[in-house]
User: Fold this.
Amino acid sequence: MTDFRLPPELIPVDGRFGCGPSKIRAEQLDHLVANAHLLGTSHRQQPVRELVGRVRSGLAELYRMPKDYEVVLGNGGSTAFWDAAAFSLIDQRSAHLAFGEFGQKFVNAASTPWLTAPAVVHGEPGTVSSFFGDEEADVFAYPHNETSTGAMTAVRRQGPTGSLTVVDATSAAGGVDIDVRETDSTTSHLKRTSRVTVDSGSPLCPPPLFNGSIASPLRVATFQKSCRSGSR
Ligand SMILES: Cc1ncc(COP(=O)(O)O)c(C=O)c1O
Assistant:
């Protein structure tokens, strides 16, 4: 094997993987300490409700969300979202694009005893696959950015009228623009999303606490409201 070495100018100054474990700046920790009065208080208290409200409305503004969509914050990683989707968004059968690790993980979550086996269009790593258009499914799911390969999809509504389009926008939402109206639900990660607005003074990082990336485990999901009310 050739003795390959990355040119020094391409080696990150900080070796941590940019999209995963985040570097936490000292300023962010200071910010947390300066607002410590919010930590450990009940989520029902007004200051916490206000903070969550500001984060939700900031995200709604960032995503240019229509009134009939909502931002939902929750704990947990993508697996929690995929399991919830398999439990309550997929009615009988989902169709997926799988061209890397994360698209395939959603397929695995949707392969449950109570659902019909999903339709899957595989793509070679580094490429993007497309639906054939004849999949019989009530949910069409695909990654926005397949982080394992870097392949990006155009976010477009898929499937027949009445089906849901569910997009895993974990790593790129907020950094790469999408039109949420092309989806019924997206999922992303506040830690990654908020990183793009660090110190920008945008509505996404109102003080206190959310002034930038704080390695929060918070998951962000957007929903077209009626898609959760069984109107399908
Ligand atoms: C596209 C995509 N989906 C899902 C995940 C997993 O996200 P989480 O760590 O929140 O479970 C990642 C992680 O990098 C990802 O890039």
Observations:
- The first strand starts at residue 69 and ends at 75.
- Strands lie at 69-75, 94-98, 119-122, 139-143, 145-146, 151-152, 164-168, 185-189, 218-224.
- Residues 193-217, 228-232 have pLDDT under 50 and may be disordered.
- Residues 19-20, 77-79, 102, 143, 145, 147, 168, 170-171, 189 surround pyridoxal-5'-phosphate (CB under 6 Å).
